[in-house]
Design a protein that fits this description.
Length: 142
C-alpha cells in the first residue's frame, strides 16, 4: 500500500483525540464518504468536498484539508487492495486511532467499499489510444 509520510502525519494528527474529538471525527468521516459523487455522465467516482462544510470543525482549515486528502488516499488504497475490516483495523491501530474511531471508519468504509471498487476498476491512468485499426499498405512501382 502506498501512502506518503505527509498523509500518515495527517492521519496521526486526526487520531489524536485532543486535535479531533470522536464526534468531530464521525462527522468528518461521514462528510468524506458522502462526498463521493457518482458522475454517471462521465462514469467516474468524483470526490467533491465543499469547503463551506469544513467551517463547522474546530480544526485549522489547513490541517482539515490535509486530513481529508489523506483519508481520500487511504480510502482509495483500501478499496484498491480490497481490504477487509481486520486489515483496515490493523492499519488504523498502527497509526494510533482509538477503537471508537476505528469502528466508525470501518462502518462507513464497508458501506461504500463496493461502489468505490467498481469505479476504481473502470478508471485507468493511461492515455487514450487506438485499440483496433486495419492497416493497408500500397506499393508504387516505378
Amino acid at each position: 500500500m502506498e501512502i506518503n509520510s505527509k498523509s500518515v502525519a495527517a492521519l496521526k494528527y486526526a487520531a489524536n483525540d485532543e486535535n479531533l474529538s470522536t464526534q468531530s471525527f464521525e462527522a468528518l468521516i461521514k462528510l468524506i464518504f458522502d462526498s463521493f459523487i457518482v458522475d454517471l455522465k462521465v462514469g467516474k467516482l468524483v470526490p467533491k468536498l465543499e469547503t463551506k462544510n469544513l467551517d463547522t470543525f474546530d480544526v485549522p482549515k489547513v490541517e482539515l484539508k490535509e486530513i481529508s486528502a489523506s483519508f481520500y488516499t487511504l480510502i482509495a488504497e483500501f478499496a484498491r487492495h480490497n481490504f477487509d475490516t481486520v486489515s483496515v483495523s490493523t492499519f488504523l491501530e498502527d497509526t494510533g486511532f482509538s477503537n471508537e474511531k476505528i469502528n466508525i471508519f470501518s462502518q462507513f468504509y464497508l458501506e461504500k467499499r463496493e461502489i468505490i471498487r467498481l469505479f476504481l476498476s473502470s478508471t485507468t491512468a493511461s492515455f487514450p489510444h487506438v485499440v483496433d485499426v486495419n492497416w493497408r499498405l500500397d506499393y508504387i512501382v516505378k
